[in-house]
Predict the 3D structure of the following.
Amino acid sequence: MPRPSAHLNLWKQRLGRVPEWVWDRTDLEALVLADNALTEISEQIGTLKALRMLDLGHNQLTRVPDALGDLDLTDFLYLHDNRLTRLPGSMARLTRLRYLNVSDNALTTLPPAIGAMKGLVELRASGNQMTSLPVAIGGLSLLRELHVRDNRLVALPDAVADLHELRQIDLRGNPLTRLPDGLASLPRLEKLDLRWVTTLTAPSWFDELESRGCLVYR
């Protein structure tokens, strides 16, 4: 008998709910459940210990189970385009995850637990209702891209100056009134996108960033 594929793609199958047999596939390394009008995910997802990638995007989820933190995701976690108002603190245990997308939800903040997700290289949280970012975000020492376009941010925590690997930060469409001066000292910053930000007086250090080759869009 051939070994079943460790990748299961159920994209856009009009499921409505996840079939129970999916939770028996403990061999799965990648699971795609995107665009299925799902309103809930069972705590049984925690049994899929081999998962490296999980796609729950384009559904109608209002919450994700705490058992998400029982997984050892390393590659991607897609939660975008749902109806999430919060993320579980258990996500702090996803310390090896490299890519997280929670864009286009109804999040008013990111949990402090985000700072424990030390493996993150790219974080996308655009199109939410966030008025602030947690100070704990400064703990993401490997982060290269931060996308928080179209939120309600008026400022960023000074801790973003600790993101020494940051290459790109997308702040478009936020009502920002100040930026931390520490952004000017980020050694690898290549792109600072502030288009459609009409509330910010440009700080003098923008010139310093541009002089060393960083693209500042404003």
